[in-house]
Specification:
The structure holds 2 protein chains of 2 kinds. By secondary structure, chain A is mostly helical. Chain A has 2 domains: about 55 residues, no CATH class; about 220 residues, Orthogonal Bundle (MetI-like fold). In chain A, helix 4 runs parallel beside helix 8, helix 4 runs antiparallel to helix 11 and helix 11 packs antiparallel against helix 14. Chain A is globular. The chains are: A mainly alpha, B mainly alpha. Chains A and B meet through helix 1, helix 4, helix 5, helix 6 and helix 7 of A and helix 1, helix 4, helix 5, helix 6 and helix 7 of B. Chain A: Pfam families: BPD_transp_1. Chain A: Keywords: Cell membrane, Membrane, Transmembrane, Transmembrane helix, Transport. Chain A: It is found in: Cell membrane. Chain A: InterPro entries: MetI-like (IPR000515), MetI-like_sf (IPR035906).
Chain lengths: ~290, ~280
Amino acid sequence: MFGLSRLSYETQKKIIIVSFLVVPLGLLALFAYLPVLNMIWYSFTDWNGYSAKEFLGFENYKTIFTDPEYFRVFKVSLYYFFATFIQLAIALYFATILSFKVKFKNFFKGVLFFPYLLNGVAIGFMFLFFFRPDGTLDTVLTAIGLEGLITQWLGNPNVINYSLAGVSVWRYMGFNFIIFLGAISSISGEIYEAAEMDGANRWQQFRYIIFPSIRIIISLNLILAISGALSAFEIPYIMTGGANGSATFVIQTVNTAFKYGKIGLGSAMAVLLLIIVVIVSSIQKKFFGEGE
Amino acid sequence: MMKLKRTLTSVGKYGSLLLGAFVAIIPIVAVFFASFKTGTEYTTTGPLTPPSDWTNFDNYMRAFVDGNMLTGFKNTVIILIISVIGTTIIGSMVAFVLHRFKFKGSQYILGAFLLATLIPAVTTQVATFQIVHTLGLFNTIWAAVILYLGTDIIAVYIFLQFMDSISVSLDESAMLDGASYFTIYRKIILPLLKPAVVTVFIIKGVNIYNDFYTPFLYMPKSSLQVISTALFKFQGPFGAQWEVITAGVMIAIIPTLIAFIFLQKYIYNGLTSGSVK
Protein backbone atom coordinates (compact mmCIF):
# COMPACT_ATOMS: atom_id res chain seq x y z
CA MET A 1 0.00 0.00 0.00
CA PHE A 2 1.28 3.45 -1.02
CA GLY A 3 4.48 1.60 -1.97
CA LEU A 4 5.52 1.96 1.66
CA SER A 5 7.39 -1.32 1.71
CA ARG A 6 9.87 -0.02 -0.86
CA LEU A 7 11.09 2.66 1.52
CA SER A 8 13.69 2.00 4.19
CA TYR A 9 12.37 1.16 7.65
CA GLU A 10 13.88 4.34 9.04
CA THR A 11 11.88 6.48 6.58
CA GLN A 12 8.78 4.35 7.05
CA LYS A 13 9.06 4.83 10.77
CA LYS A 14 9.04 8.59 10.40
CA ILE A 15 6.08 8.53 8.04
CA ILE A 16 4.11 6.23 10.31
CA ILE A 17 4.85 8.27 13.44
CA VAL A 18 3.72 11.48 11.82
CA SER A 19 0.72 10.14 9.96
CA PHE A 20 -0.57 8.02 12.84
CA LEU A 21 -0.27 10.78 15.40
CA VAL A 22 -1.34 13.87 13.54
CA VAL A 23 -5.10 13.27 13.82
CA PRO A 24 -5.17 12.06 17.45
CA LEU A 25 -2.86 14.82 18.64
CA GLY A 26 -4.83 17.39 16.69
CA LEU A 27 -8.03 16.22 18.36
CA LEU A 28 -6.33 16.16 21.73
CA ALA A 29 -5.11 19.72 21.33
CA LEU A 30 -8.40 20.95 19.92
CA PHE A 31 -10.78 19.33 22.38
CA ALA A 32 -8.74 18.84 25.54
CA TYR A 33 -6.11 21.56 25.81
CA LEU A 34 -7.45 24.46 23.75
CA PRO A 35 -10.73 24.53 25.72
CA VAL A 36 -8.82 24.74 28.98
CA LEU A 37 -6.69 27.64 27.74
CA ASN A 38 -9.69 29.45 26.27
CA MET A 39 -11.66 28.85 29.42
CA ILE A 40 -8.95 30.43 31.55
CA TRP A 41 -8.89 33.41 29.23
CA TYR A 42 -12.71 33.77 29.21
CA SER A 43 -12.76 33.57 33.00
CA PHE A 44 -11.00 36.93 33.23
CA THR A 45 -13.46 38.64 30.89
CA ASP A 46 -17.12 39.63 30.94
CA TRP A 47 -17.84 37.87 27.65
CA ASN A 48 -21.44 36.98 26.85
CA GLY A 49 -20.75 34.86 23.78
CA TYR A 50 -20.99 37.43 20.99
CA SER A 51 -20.01 40.97 22.00
CA ALA A 52 -16.39 42.05 22.41
CA LYS A 53 -14.58 40.66 25.44
CA GLU A 54 -13.59 43.10 28.12
CA PHE A 55 -10.81 42.19 30.50
CA LEU A 56 -12.04 42.12 34.09
CA GLY A 57 -9.16 40.65 36.07
CA PHE A 58 -10.31 38.62 39.05
CA GLU A 59 -13.77 40.18 39.14
CA ASN A 60 -15.57 36.92 38.19
CA TYR A 61 -13.74 34.96 40.84
CA LYS A 62 -14.62 37.55 43.44
CA THR A 63 -18.30 37.23 42.49
CA ILE A 64 -18.24 33.46 42.97
CA PHE A 65 -16.66 33.68 46.41
CA THR A 66 -18.70 36.59 47.71
CA ASP A 67 -22.13 36.11 46.15
CA PRO A 68 -23.91 33.47 48.26
CA GLU A 69 -25.97 32.42 45.25
CA TYR A 70 -22.84 31.02 43.64
CA PHE A 71 -21.03 29.82 46.69
CA ARG A 72 -24.01 27.96 48.13
CA VAL A 73 -23.92 25.31 45.43
CA PHE A 74 -20.68 23.93 46.84
CA LYS A 75 -22.69 22.80 49.83
CA VAL A 76 -24.84 20.59 47.62
CA SER A 77 -21.66 18.70 46.68
CA LEU A 78 -21.32 17.62 50.29
CA TYR A 79 -24.43 15.43 49.98
CA TYR A 80 -22.93 13.67 46.98
CA PHE A 81 -19.57 13.50 48.70
CA PHE A 82 -20.95 11.70 51.76
CA ALA A 83 -23.14 9.52 49.59
CA THR A 84 -19.93 8.41 47.93
CA PHE A 85 -18.65 6.83 51.12
CA ILE A 86 -21.88 4.90 51.54
CA GLN A 87 -21.66 3.88 47.91
CA LEU A 88 -18.08 2.59 48.29
CA ALA A 89 -18.90 0.78 51.54
CA ILE A 90 -21.88 -1.01 49.98
CA ALA A 91 -19.84 -1.86 46.89
CA LEU A 92 -16.99 -3.24 48.95
CA TYR A 93 -19.36 -5.26 51.11
CA PHE A 94 -21.08 -6.92 48.17
CA ALA A 95 -17.82 -7.46 46.31
CA THR A 96 -16.38 -9.25 49.33
CA ILE A 97 -19.43 -11.45 49.86
CA LEU A 98 -19.65 -12.37 46.20
CA SER A 99 -15.95 -13.26 46.04
CA PHE A 100 -16.66 -16.29 48.20
CA LYS A 101 -18.99 -19.18 47.58
CA VAL A 102 -22.54 -17.97 47.15
CA LYS A 103 -25.56 -19.52 45.45
CA PHE A 104 -26.86 -17.68 42.37
CA LYS A 105 -23.62 -15.69 42.30
CA ASN A 106 -23.99 -14.57 38.68
CA PHE A 107 -27.56 -13.50 39.20
CA PHE A 108 -26.63 -11.25 42.12
CA LYS A 109 -23.60 -9.90 40.29
CA GLY A 110 -25.74 -9.02 37.29
CA VAL A 111 -28.55 -7.42 39.25
CA LEU A 112 -26.23 -5.30 41.39
CA PHE A 113 -24.21 -4.14 38.42
CA PHE A 114 -26.95 -3.57 35.86
CA PRO A 115 -28.08 -0.08 37.01
CA TYR A 116 -24.67 1.29 36.02
CA LEU A 117 -25.34 0.45 32.38
CA LEU A 118 -28.63 2.31 32.19
CA ASN A 119 -29.29 5.50 30.31
CA GLY A 120 -29.12 8.56 32.58
CA VAL A 121 -32.34 10.06 31.29
CA ALA A 122 -34.15 6.73 31.77
CA ILE A 123 -32.85 6.64 35.35
CA GLY A 124 -34.02 10.21 35.89
CA PHE A 125 -37.57 9.40 34.83
CA MET A 126 -37.53 6.12 36.68
CA PHE A 127 -36.77 7.90 39.93
CA LEU A 128 -39.19 10.74 39.30
CA PHE A 129 -41.72 7.93 39.15
CA PHE A 130 -40.17 6.27 42.20
CA PHE A 131 -40.34 9.40 44.38
CA ARG A 132 -43.82 10.57 43.29
CA PRO A 133 -46.47 11.01 45.97
CA ASP A 134 -48.06 7.55 46.27
CA GLY A 135 -45.23 6.32 44.05
CA THR A 136 -43.05 3.26 44.40
CA LEU A 137 -41.14 4.41 47.47
CA ASP A 138 -44.26 5.44 49.37
CA THR A 139 -45.90 2.13 48.51
CA VAL A 140 -42.91 0.14 49.78
CA LEU A 141 -42.70 2.20 52.98
CA THR A 142 -46.41 1.72 53.62
CA ALA A 143 -46.07 -2.02 53.03
CA ILE A 144 -43.40 -2.35 55.70
CA GLY A 145 -45.17 -0.08 58.16
CA LEU A 146 -42.95 2.96 57.81
CA GLU A 147 -45.54 5.29 56.31
CA GLY A 148 -44.61 7.83 59.00
CA LEU A 149 -41.43 8.58 57.04
CA ILE A 150 -43.27 9.58 53.88
CA THR A 151 -42.56 13.11 52.72
CA GLN A 152 -42.38 15.08 49.48
CA TRP A 153 -39.15 13.42 48.41
CA LEU A 154 -38.42 15.96 45.70
CA GLY A 155 -40.57 18.81 46.96
CA ASN A 156 -39.12 19.17 50.42
CA PRO A 157 -35.92 21.25 50.24
CA ASN A 158 -34.58 19.52 53.36
CA VAL A 159 -34.85 16.11 51.77
CA ILE A 160 -34.37 16.66 48.04
CA ASN A 161 -30.59 16.37 48.06
CA TYR A 162 -30.72 13.13 50.03
CA SER A 163 -33.14 11.73 47.47
CA LEU A 164 -30.97 12.81 44.54
CA ALA A 165 -27.73 11.63 46.14
CA GLY A 166 -29.50 8.33 46.80
CA VAL A 167 -30.23 7.99 43.09
CA SER A 168 -26.59 8.59 42.35
CA VAL A 169 -25.61 5.82 44.81
CA TRP A 170 -28.11 3.53 43.08
CA ARG A 171 -26.65 4.38 39.70
CA TYR A 172 -22.93 4.17 40.37
CA MET A 173 -22.62 1.55 43.12
CA GLY A 174 -22.42 -1.22 40.51
CA PHE A 175 -19.38 0.34 38.89
CA ASN A 176 -17.36 0.42 42.13
CA PHE A 177 -18.66 -3.05 42.90
CA ILE A 178 -17.40 -4.57 39.67
CA ILE A 179 -14.00 -2.89 40.01
CA PHE A 180 -13.64 -4.19 43.58
CA LEU A 181 -14.76 -7.62 42.48
CA GLY A 182 -12.08 -7.71 39.81
CA ALA A 183 -9.42 -6.54 42.23
CA ILE A 184 -10.39 -9.08 44.89
CA SER A 185 -10.46 -11.92 42.40
CA SER A 186 -6.84 -11.19 41.50
CA ILE A 187 -5.78 -12.19 45.03
CA SER A 188 -4.47 -15.74 44.96
CA GLY A 189 -6.81 -18.33 46.48
CA GLU A 190 -3.95 -20.00 48.33
CA ILE A 191 -3.66 -17.05 50.70
CA TYR A 192 -7.23 -17.60 51.90
CA GLU A 193 -6.61 -21.30 52.30
CA ALA A 194 -3.55 -20.64 54.42
CA ALA A 195 -5.46 -18.06 56.48
CA GLU A 196 -8.35 -20.45 56.97
CA MET A 197 -5.98 -23.14 58.19
CA ASP A 198 -4.67 -20.64 60.72
CA GLY A 199 -8.26 -20.16 61.87
CA ALA A 200 -8.89 -16.69 60.47
CA ASN A 201 -12.56 -15.83 60.18
CA ARG A 202 -14.16 -13.94 57.31
CA TRP A 203 -13.76 -10.55 58.94
CA GLN A 204 -10.08 -11.20 59.65
CA GLN A 205 -9.61 -12.38 56.08
CA PHE A 206 -11.16 -9.17 54.88
CA ARG A 207 -9.21 -7.00 57.32
CA TYR A 208 -5.78 -8.53 56.80
CA ILE A 209 -5.86 -9.98 53.28
CA ILE A 210 -8.47 -8.34 51.08
CA PHE A 211 -8.34 -4.78 52.36
CA PRO A 212 -4.54 -4.32 52.13
CA SER A 213 -4.41 -5.97 48.70
CA ILE A 214 -6.93 -3.63 47.17
CA ARG A 215 -5.98 -0.49 49.06
CA ILE A 216 -4.83 1.25 45.89
CA ILE A 217 -8.05 0.45 44.08
CA ILE A 218 -10.05 1.77 47.02
CA SER A 219 -8.14 5.02 47.00
CA LEU A 220 -8.52 5.32 43.26
CA ASN A 221 -12.25 4.78 43.52
CA LEU A 222 -12.39 7.33 46.29
CA ILE A 223 -10.74 9.97 44.14
CA LEU A 224 -12.97 9.20 41.18
CA ALA A 225 -15.89 9.50 43.55
CA ILE A 226 -14.79 12.84 44.96
CA SER A 227 -14.41 14.43 41.56
CA GLY A 228 -17.69 12.72 40.62
CA ALA A 229 -19.39 14.36 43.61
CA LEU A 230 -18.09 17.77 42.57
CA SER A 231 -19.18 17.35 38.99
CA ALA A 232 -22.62 15.84 39.71
CA PHE A 233 -24.86 17.02 36.92
CA GLU A 234 -27.01 14.61 34.95
CA ILE A 235 -29.32 13.14 37.57
CA PRO A 236 -30.26 16.39 39.33
CA TYR A 237 -30.51 18.27 36.02
CA ILE A 238 -32.82 15.72 34.43
CA MET A 239 -34.92 15.20 37.54
CA THR A 240 -35.34 18.68 38.98
CA GLY A 241 -33.48 21.09 36.72
CA GLY A 242 -31.80 22.30 39.88
CA ALA A 243 -35.03 23.44 41.55
CA ASN A 244 -35.66 23.45 45.31
CA GLY A 245 -32.04 24.00 46.26
CA SER A 246 -30.78 20.97 44.35
CA ALA A 247 -28.58 22.90 41.89
CA THR A 248 -25.09 21.46 41.85
CA PHE A 249 -21.98 23.36 40.88
CA VAL A 250 -22.08 22.10 37.31
CA ILE A 251 -25.78 22.88 36.88
CA GLN A 252 -25.05 26.38 38.09
CA THR A 253 -22.11 26.64 35.68
CA VAL A 254 -24.11 25.42 32.70
CA ASN A 255 -27.02 27.73 33.54
CA THR A 256 -24.76 30.73 34.10
CA ALA A 257 -22.97 30.22 30.80
CA PHE A 258 -25.65 28.96 28.45
CA LYS A 259 -28.95 30.09 29.94
CA TYR A 260 -27.94 33.52 31.19
CA GLY A 261 -25.19 34.07 28.65
CA LYS A 262 -22.55 34.92 31.25
CA ILE A 263 -19.78 32.94 29.62
CA GLY A 264 -17.01 34.76 31.50
CA LEU A 265 -18.51 34.00 34.87
CA GLY A 266 -19.40 30.43 33.90
CA SER A 267 -15.81 29.90 32.76
CA ALA A 268 -14.48 31.16 36.08
CA MET A 269 -16.66 28.58 37.83
CA ALA A 270 -15.42 25.85 35.53
CA VAL A 271 -11.80 26.89 36.15
CA LEU A 272 -12.38 26.66 39.89
CA LEU A 273 -13.86 23.19 39.55
CA LEU A 274 -10.94 22.14 37.39
CA ILE A 275 -8.45 23.43 39.96
CA ILE A 276 -10.18 21.50 42.74
CA VAL A 277 -10.20 18.30 40.73
CA VAL A 278 -6.52 18.67 39.86
CA ILE A 279 -5.62 19.30 43.50
CA VAL A 280 -7.60 16.28 44.65
CA SER A 281 -5.95 14.09 42.01
CA SER A 282 -2.48 15.19 42.94
CA ILE A 283 -3.14 14.57 46.63
CA GLN A 284 -4.10 11.07 45.66
CA LYS A 285 -0.87 10.67 43.67
CA LYS A 286 1.16 11.89 46.65
CA PHE A 287 -0.53 9.64 49.17
CA PHE A 288 -0.77 6.48 47.21
CA GLY A 289 2.40 6.89 45.20
CA GLU A 290 2.96 4.21 42.62
CA GLY A 291 -0.68 4.04 41.51
CA GLU A 292 0.26 2.27 38.31
CA MET B 1 -23.47 -23.08 68.87
CA MET B 2 -21.20 -23.27 65.84
CA LYS B 3 -24.15 -24.34 63.75
CA LEU B 4 -26.33 -21.50 64.97
CA LYS B 5 -23.63 -18.99 64.20
CA ARG B 6 -23.18 -20.40 60.73
CA THR B 7 -26.91 -20.22 60.06
CA LEU B 8 -27.02 -16.64 61.24
CA THR B 9 -24.11 -15.63 59.00
CA SER B 10 -25.79 -17.31 56.10
CA VAL B 11 -29.10 -15.57 56.80
CA GLY B 12 -27.27 -12.25 57.03
CA LYS B 13 -25.41 -12.91 53.81
CA TYR B 14 -28.40 -13.93 51.70
CA GLY B 15 -30.63 -11.42 53.44
CA SER B 16 -28.36 -8.55 52.48
CA LEU B 17 -27.94 -9.86 48.94
CA LEU B 18 -31.68 -10.15 48.49
CA LEU B 19 -32.17 -6.68 49.93
CA GLY B 20 -29.52 -5.29 47.56
CA ALA B 21 -31.12 -7.03 44.59
CA PHE B 22 -34.55 -5.74 45.68
CA VAL B 23 -33.33 -2.16 45.87
CA ALA B 24 -31.62 -2.48 42.49
CA ILE B 25 -34.65 -3.98 40.76
CA ILE B 26 -37.69 -2.37 42.35
CA PRO B 27 -37.54 1.01 40.56
CA ILE B 28 -37.25 -0.82 37.23
CA VAL B 29 -40.07 -3.27 38.04
CA ALA B 30 -42.45 -0.45 38.98
CA VAL B 31 -41.72 1.30 35.68
CA PHE B 32 -42.16 -1.98 33.82
CA PHE B 33 -45.57 -2.59 35.44
CA ALA B 34 -46.77 0.95 34.75
CA SER B 35 -45.80 0.72 31.08
CA PHE B 36 -48.52 -1.91 30.48
CA LYS B 37 -51.30 -0.15 32.32
CA THR B 38 -54.13 1.86 30.77
CA GLY B 39 -54.60 5.46 31.86
CA THR B 40 -57.43 4.70 34.29
CA GLU B 41 -55.75 1.56 35.54
CA TYR B 42 -52.65 3.60 36.27
CA THR B 43 -54.53 6.06 38.46
CA THR B 44 -56.52 3.43 40.33
CA THR B 45 -53.81 0.85 41.10
CA GLY B 46 -50.60 1.13 43.12
CA PRO B 47 -47.22 1.16 41.37
CA LEU B 48 -46.38 -2.34 42.59
CA THR B 49 -49.63 -3.90 41.39
CA PRO B 50 -48.98 -5.85 38.20
CA PRO B 51 -50.95 -4.71 35.14
CA SER B 52 -54.15 -6.59 34.37
CA ASP B 53 -53.27 -7.03 30.71
CA TRP B 54 -49.67 -7.92 29.81
CA THR B 55 -50.37 -7.59 26.11
CA ASN B 56 -51.39 -3.94 26.25
CA PHE B 57 -48.72 -2.41 24.04
CA ASP B 58 -50.64 0.83 23.38
CA ASN B 59 -48.29 2.87 25.57
CA TYR B 60 -45.27 1.46 23.76
CA MET B 61 -46.81 2.35 20.42
CA ARG B 62 -47.56 5.89 21.55
CA ALA B 63 -44.16 6.40 23.12
CA PHE B 64 -42.38 5.03 20.08
CA VAL B 65 -44.41 6.92 17.48
CA ASP B 66 -45.34 10.19 19.21
CA GLY B 67 -42.00 10.36 21.00
CA ASN B 68 -40.12 10.01 17.71
CA MET B 69 -37.98 7.31 19.22
CA LEU B 70 -37.21 5.82 15.84
CA THR B 71 -35.30 9.01 14.95
CA GLY B 72 -33.56 8.71 18.31
CA PHE B 73 -32.49 5.15 17.66
CA LYS B 74 -31.38 5.92 14.12
CA ASN B 75 -29.17 8.83 15.19
CA THR B 76 -27.82 6.95 18.18
CA VAL B 77 -26.84 4.00 16.00
CA ILE B 78 -25.17 6.20 13.37
CA ILE B 79 -23.17 8.14 15.97
CA LEU B 80 -22.34 4.95 17.82
CA ILE B 81 -20.99 3.12 14.79
CA ILE B 82 -18.87 5.99 13.45
CA SER B 83 -17.49 6.93 16.87
CA VAL B 84 -16.73 3.41 17.98
CA ILE B 85 -14.93 2.49 14.77
CA GLY B 86 -13.10 5.82 14.77
CA THR B 87 -12.03 5.41 18.37
CA THR B 88 -10.72 1.93 17.65
CA ILE B 89 -8.69 3.08 14.68
CA ILE B 90 -7.31 6.21 16.33
CA GLY B 91 -6.65 4.54 19.66
CA SER B 92 -4.87 1.58 18.14
CA MET B 93 -2.73 3.83 15.90
CA VAL B 94 -1.57 5.87 18.86
CA ALA B 95 -0.89 2.76 20.90
CA PHE B 96 1.03 1.17 18.01
CA VAL B 97 3.29 4.16 17.52
CA LEU B 98 3.90 4.77 21.24
CA HIS B 99 4.48 1.13 22.04
CA ARG B 100 6.58 -0.02 19.10
CA PHE B 101 8.70 3.05 18.34
CA LYS B 102 10.82 4.74 20.92
CA PHE B 103 11.52 8.25 19.73
CA LYS B 104 12.21 11.65 21.14
CA GLY B 105 9.02 13.01 22.58
CA SER B 106 7.10 9.73 22.82
CA GLN B 107 7.08 10.05 26.59
CA TYR B 108 5.68 13.56 26.34
CA ILE B 109 2.93 12.44 24.01
CA LEU B 110 1.86 9.72 26.40
CA GLY B 111 2.06 12.29 29.20
CA ALA B 112 -0.16 14.64 27.24
CA PHE B 113 -2.79 11.94 26.87
CA LEU B 114 -2.49 11.09 30.56
CA LEU B 115 -2.77 14.70 31.69
CA ALA B 116 -5.88 15.15 29.60
CA THR B 117 -7.66 12.47 31.65
CA LEU B 118 -7.40 14.81 34.62
CA ILE B 119 -9.62 17.37 32.92
CA PRO B 120 -13.23 16.45 33.65
CA ALA B 121 -15.00 16.92 30.30
CA VAL B 122 -18.02 18.50 31.90
CA THR B 123 -15.97 21.44 33.21
CA THR B 124 -14.73 22.54 29.82
CA GLN B 125 -18.07 22.43 28.01
CA VAL B 126 -18.37 26.21 27.91
CA ALA B 127 -15.11 26.62 26.02
CA THR B 128 -15.55 23.44 23.97
CA PHE B 129 -18.91 24.77 22.86
CA GLN B 130 -17.25 27.83 21.33
CA ILE B 131 -14.80 25.64 19.42
CA VAL B 132 -17.50 23.36 18.06
CA HIS B 133 -19.45 26.45 17.06
CA THR B 134 -16.44 28.01 15.33
CA LEU B 135 -15.83 24.80 13.39
CA GLY B 136 -19.42 25.05 12.14
CA LEU B 137 -20.32 21.69 13.65
CA PHE B 138 -23.01 22.93 16.01
CA ASN B 139 -26.31 21.15 15.35
CA THR B 140 -24.75 18.51 13.14
CA ILE B 141 -24.16 14.89 13.94
CA TRP B 142 -20.43 15.52 13.63
CA ALA B 143 -20.38 17.60 16.80
CA ALA B 144 -21.08 14.50 18.85
CA VAL B 145 -18.89 12.24 16.72
CA ILE B 146 -15.83 14.46 16.91
CA LEU B 147 -16.22 14.99 20.65
CA TYR B 148 -16.50 11.26 21.28
CA LEU B 149 -13.39 10.70 19.15
CA GLY B 150 -11.33 13.57 20.43
CA THR B 151 -11.62 13.05 24.14
CA ASP B 152 -10.98 9.36 24.22
CA ILE B 153 -7.94 8.32 26.15
CA ILE B 154 -9.30 5.16 27.73
CA ALA B 155 -9.06 3.37 24.40
CA VAL B 156 -5.37 4.32 24.10
CA TYR B 157 -4.72 2.89 27.57
CA ILE B 158 -6.49 -0.36 26.86
CA PHE B 159 -4.63 -0.84 23.57
CA LEU B 160 -1.28 0.08 25.11
CA GLN B 161 -1.82 -2.40 27.88
CA PHE B 162 -2.74 -5.05 25.37
CA MET B 163 0.23 -4.35 23.07
CA ASP B 164 2.48 -5.54 25.86
CA SER B 165 1.26 -9.06 25.29
CA ILE B 166 1.94 -8.98 21.54
CA SER B 167 5.51 -10.08 21.04
CA VAL B 168 7.84 -7.77 19.13
CA SER B 169 9.37 -10.83 17.46
CA LEU B 170 6.17 -11.09 15.39
CA ASP B 171 6.93 -7.66 13.93
CA GLU B 172 10.51 -8.65 13.32
CA SER B 173 9.70 -11.82 11.44
CA ALA B 174 7.23 -9.90 9.29
CA MET B 175 9.96 -7.39 8.54
CA LEU B 176 12.20 -10.23 7.37
CA ASP B 177 9.47 -11.03 4.86
CA GLY B 178 9.60 -7.41 3.73
CA ALA B 179 6.34 -6.21 5.28
CA SER B 180 6.00 -2.47 5.78
CA TYR B 181 5.20 -1.01 9.18
CA PHE B 182 1.76 -0.20 7.91
CA THR B 183 1.22 -3.82 6.89
CA ILE B 184 2.43 -4.92 10.31
CA TYR B 185 -0.09 -2.64 11.97
CA ARG B 186 -2.93 -3.69 9.70
CA LYS B 187 -2.29 -7.37 9.21
CA ILE B 188 -0.65 -8.38 12.49
CA ILE B 189 -1.32 -5.96 15.31
CA LEU B 190 -4.91 -4.99 14.58
CA PRO B 191 -6.22 -8.58 14.31
CA LEU B 192 -4.37 -9.56 17.50
CA LEU B 193 -5.90 -6.64 19.35
CA LYS B 194 -9.36 -8.15 18.87
CA PRO B 195 -10.11 -8.76 22.58
CA ALA B 196 -9.08 -5.19 23.35
CA VAL B 197 -11.25 -3.97 20.48
CA VAL B 198 -14.26 -5.77 21.99
CA THR B 199 -13.53 -4.06 25.30
CA VAL B 200 -13.29 -0.63 23.68
CA PHE B 201 -16.50 -1.27 21.70
CA ILE B 202 -18.36 -2.06 24.90
CA ILE B 203 -17.04 0.73 27.11
CA LYS B 204 -17.39 3.31 24.37
CA GLY B 205 -20.75 1.96 23.29
CA VAL B 206 -22.18 2.15 26.81
CA ASN B 207 -20.88 5.69 27.24
CA ILE B 208 -22.28 6.95 23.97
CA TYR B 209 -25.64 5.24 24.31
CA ASN B 210 -26.11 6.72 27.76
CA ASP B 211 -24.58 10.15 27.23
CA PHE B 212 -26.97 13.00 27.68
CA TYR B 213 -25.21 16.33 27.75
CA THR B 214 -23.21 16.09 24.53
CA PRO B 215 -26.26 15.65 22.29
CA PHE B 216 -28.31 17.93 24.53
CA LEU B 217 -25.85 20.82 24.25
CA TYR B 218 -24.48 20.32 20.75
CA MET B 219 -27.36 18.95 18.69
CA PRO B 220 -30.60 20.50 19.95
CA LYS B 221 -32.28 20.17 16.54
CA SER B 222 -35.15 17.71 16.89
CA SER B 223 -34.23 15.77 13.76
CA LEU B 224 -30.86 15.06 15.40
CA GLN B 225 -32.16 13.77 18.69
CA VAL B 226 -30.67 10.60 20.12
CA ILE B 227 -32.27 8.17 22.56
CA SER B 228 -31.31 10.28 25.59
CA THR B 229 -32.60 13.56 24.25
CA ALA B 230 -35.69 11.97 22.69
CA LEU B 231 -36.58 10.56 26.08
CA PHE B 232 -35.80 13.84 27.82
CA LYS B 233 -38.44 15.53 25.66
CA PHE B 234 -41.13 13.28 27.08
CA GLN B 235 -41.43 15.72 29.97
CA GLY B 236 -43.30 18.21 27.80
CA PRO B 237 -45.96 16.54 25.65
CA PHE B 238 -46.70 13.62 27.95
CA GLY B 239 -46.62 15.71 31.12
CA ALA B 240 -48.38 13.60 33.68
CA GLN B 241 -49.07 10.63 31.42
CA TRP B 242 -46.77 8.35 33.30
CA GLU B 243 -47.98 5.23 31.53
CA VAL B 244 -46.52 6.60 28.28
CA ILE B 245 -43.34 7.96 29.87
CA THR B 246 -42.64 4.62 31.55
CA ALA B 247 -43.08 2.86 28.22
CA GLY B 248 -40.51 5.26 26.75
CA VAL B 249 -38.14 4.46 29.60
CA MET B 250 -38.54 0.75 28.94
CA ILE B 251 -37.89 1.26 25.21
CA ALA B 252 -34.61 2.97 26.10
CA ILE B 253 -33.65 0.26 28.59
CA ILE B 254 -34.47 -2.88 26.60
CA PRO B 255 -31.49 -2.68 24.17
CA THR B 256 -29.17 -2.28 27.17
CA LEU B 257 -30.70 -5.31 28.85
CA ILE B 258 -30.34 -7.46 25.73
CA ALA B 259 -26.74 -6.35 25.20
CA PHE B 260 -25.97 -7.01 28.85
CA ILE B 261 -27.35 -10.54 28.78
CA PHE B 262 -25.36 -11.48 25.69
CA LEU B 263 -22.13 -9.65 26.50
CA GLN B 264 -22.06 -10.12 30.27
CA LYS B 265 -18.68 -11.83 30.37
CA TYR B 266 -16.97 -9.26 28.14
CA ILE B 267 -18.53 -6.35 29.99
CA TYR B 268 -17.18 -7.54 33.32
CA ASN B 269 -13.72 -8.22 31.93
CA GLY B 270 -13.66 -5.05 29.90
CA LEU B 271 -14.55 -2.77 32.75
CA THR B 272 -12.13 -4.26 35.20
CA SER B 273 -9.19 -4.35 32.82
CA GLY B 274 -10.12 -1.01 31.32
CA SER B 275 -10.48 1.20 34.32
CA VAL B 276 -8.28 -0.25 37.02
CA LYS B 277 -4.89 0.48 35.56
